[in-house]
């Protein structure tokens, strides 16, 4: 039976479509539909505000879930045009730290904060706080409506927003990223897709009837599949992505091309014309450079590889980048912590792989630099690592005719400079993102690449085990989709040693750089790709195997093991994974090893 909310939304949209005139452009028609959805959303927040004053928990829980669903019809354009307001409505329930004001982190607001007050059990003692948070939600929704009055939609922006909305479903929606307590995520997918169907209905006359019918069918199939499989732990995300969402986003691209609506060409992390999230070459590593347009020729990659293996970058010609980033070990070193340059101590942290390091907006475990060029300089000149000097290295390499020729071929100049060395190293590292794993091939259509055990592991990763709420697909690191322009750090409560009594590791992480309480023991979320080849794990190398890592997460991180942490971002609740589920998780993670 159709819910009252869905009836109101659909009736309102149909009324809005009926009011359009021949003089309205397609973009104006879409804005009219969005405005109507926005009114429904604001009304649902009003209803939530009214119902919360009663004593019937079931009623205001239902109102809360209805308000969330109504927001999902608005979300594609709210996130696109008003990201800060969208965050106030549905951002993570974590404080936001401004680097220039670290002592006063901004408290979170919105649905996710309210959810934690209502679920799993409502405590009446939280009633004053609940009223305050709903009032903040109301203010944010009103702000969205006010800004909408002056928004100008264009066809290109509309398709861009809808594409990102689809990617948001498959990366965040199916994981329960923004419903971590109520587990209502899957029920919110149909309202989003229904709204997208109505938005795209405006473009029916812009393409062939067959092409539009195909798109409509794909939307309806995805909606029906989700409605027929509502169980969060049981939902087959592998099938949903491969059989429904990938064909849907590919067809969306075809509709845009048929309607002669251009794709945006400005530099982005993810190509604006990406037909799916799993196509080869859709990520743009040069976005993560200072200019966003730097290019790397094959000769520059070759030069970078030479320099990566060049011991003359270090003092006394004894260590190169490859000394710690060993290609035979997936560019890691197999050690908990490597030795310092003088061999007397160990370096501060575990050596990460360079694979996929080029697809990040922040580098090092504490996110202290933004660009690979700067990271290269810090590593080469760090007394504990290579203890070198790029100026001296440039002078030394200038004596080598082979290097002078290589620099000329790569950069058009025989003068070897520190900046040239940094650039070549950075370009080489950016070339190390092949997306050639069995998982990638499976998502591109080769079903033979994953067996049932491995797909079960993927479904656990993205569902019950909650790995995908921090290690975001398809990079499987902390780079937040669908824009991929911000990378997250998490407080996991990593212990000093993997035995009782568990004690927090002394490394304060991101707090070393930004002295703000939420960043104490916070570390950047690294990629899971190729992780089966890069043991040991965590910033201190405390866990020797994937099985140990999974056991740590299953326990609820440090807090779940008795470490007292007020700011742990990883939920302390046990995951209750079975022995078979843990084995399936490991099996899936192994499918993320690159074949190249």
Automatic annotation (TrEMBL):
InterPro entries: Cyt_c-like_dom, Cyt_c-like_dom_sf, Cytochrome_c_Peroxidase/MauG, Di-haem_cyt_c_peroxidsae, Imelysin_sf. Pfam families: CCP_MauG. Keywords: Heme, Iron, Metal-binding, Oxidoreductase, Peroxidase, Signal. The keyword Transcription does not apply. It is found in: Cell envelope. GO terms for cellular component: cell envelope. Residues 299-455, 452-593 form the Cytochrome c domain. GO terms for molecular function: cytochrome-c peroxidase activity; electron transfer activity; heme binding; metal ion binding. SUPFAM superfamilies: Cytochrome c (SSF46626). This is Cytochrome-c peroxidase. It comes from Panacibacter microcysteis. The lineage of its organism: Bacteria, Pseudomonadati, Bacteroidota, Chitinophagia, Chitinophagales.
């Amino acid at each position: 039976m159709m819910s009252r909310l869905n009836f109101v939304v659909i009736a309102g949209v149909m009324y809005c479509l009926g009011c359009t005139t021949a003089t309205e452009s397609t973009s104006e028609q879409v804005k009219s539909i969005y405005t109507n959805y926005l009114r429904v959303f604001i009304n649902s927040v009003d209803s939530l505000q009214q119902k919360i004053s009663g004593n019937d928990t079931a009623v205001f829980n239902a109102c809360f879930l209805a308000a969330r669903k109504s927001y999902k019809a608005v979300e594609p354009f709210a996130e696109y045009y008003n990201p800060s307001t969208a965050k106030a409505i549905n951002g993570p329930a974590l404080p936001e730290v401004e680097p220039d004001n670290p002592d006063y982190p901004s408290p979170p607001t919105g649905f996710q904060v309210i959810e934690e007050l209502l679920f799993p059990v409502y405590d009446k003692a939280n009633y004053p706080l609940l009223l305050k948070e709903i009032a903040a939600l109301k203010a944010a929704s009103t702000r969205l409506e006010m800004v909408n009055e002056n928004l100008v939609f264009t066809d290109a922006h509309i398709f861009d927003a809808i594409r990102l909305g689809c990617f948001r479903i498959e990366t965040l929606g199916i994981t329960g990223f923004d419903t971590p307590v109520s587990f209502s995520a899957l029920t919110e997918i149909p309202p989003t897709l229904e709204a997208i169907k109505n938005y795209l209905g405006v473009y029916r006359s812009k393409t062939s009837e067959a092409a539009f019918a195909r798109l409509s069918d794909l939307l309806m199939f995805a909606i029906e599949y989700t409605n027929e499989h509502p169980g969060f732990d049981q939902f087959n995300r592998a099938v949903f992505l491969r059989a429904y969402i990938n064909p849907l986003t590919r067809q969306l691209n075809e509709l845009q091309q048929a309607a002669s609506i251009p794709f945006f060409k400005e530099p982005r992390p993810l190509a604006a014309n990406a037909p799916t999230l799993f196509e080869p070459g859709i990520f743009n590593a040069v976005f993560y450079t200072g200019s966003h347009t730097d290019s790397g020729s094959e000769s520059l990659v070759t030069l970078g590889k030479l320099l990566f293996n060049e011991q003359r970058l270090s003092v006394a010609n004894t260590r190169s980048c490859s000394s710690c980033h060993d290609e035979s070990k997936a560019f890691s070193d197999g050690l908990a912590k490597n030795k310092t340059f003088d061999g007397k101590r160990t370096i501060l942290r575990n050596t990460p792989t360079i694979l996929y390091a080029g697809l990040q907006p922040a580098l090092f475990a504490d996110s202290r630099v933004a660009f690979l060029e700067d990271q290269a300089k810090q590593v080469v000149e760090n007394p504990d690592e290579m203890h070198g000097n790029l100026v001296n290295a440039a002078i030394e390499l200038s004596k080598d005719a082979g290097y002078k020729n290589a620099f000329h071929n790569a950069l058009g100049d025989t003068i070897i400079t520190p900046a040239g060395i940094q650039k070549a190293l950075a370009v080489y590292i950016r070339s190390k993102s092949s997306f050639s794993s069995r998982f990638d091939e499976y998502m591109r259509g080769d079903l033979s690449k994953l067996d049932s055990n491995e797909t079960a592991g993927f479904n656990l990763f993205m569902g019950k085990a909650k790995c995908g709420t921090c290690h975001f697909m398809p990079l499987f690191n902390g780079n937040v989709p669908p824009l991929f322009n911000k990378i997250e750090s998490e407080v996991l409560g990593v212990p000093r040693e993997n035995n009782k009594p568990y004690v927090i590791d002394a490394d304060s992480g991101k707090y070393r750089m930004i002295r703000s309480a939420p960043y104490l023991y916070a570390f950047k979320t690294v990629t899971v790709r190729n992780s089966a080849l890069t043991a040991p794990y965590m910033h201190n190398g405390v866990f020797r195997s994937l099985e140990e890592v999974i056991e740590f997460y299953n326990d609820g991180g440090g807090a779940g093991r008795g470490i007292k942490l007020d700011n742990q971002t990883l939920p302390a609740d046990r995951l209750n994974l079975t022995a078979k589920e843990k084995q399936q998780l490991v099996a899936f993670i192994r499918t993320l090893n690159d074949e190249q």
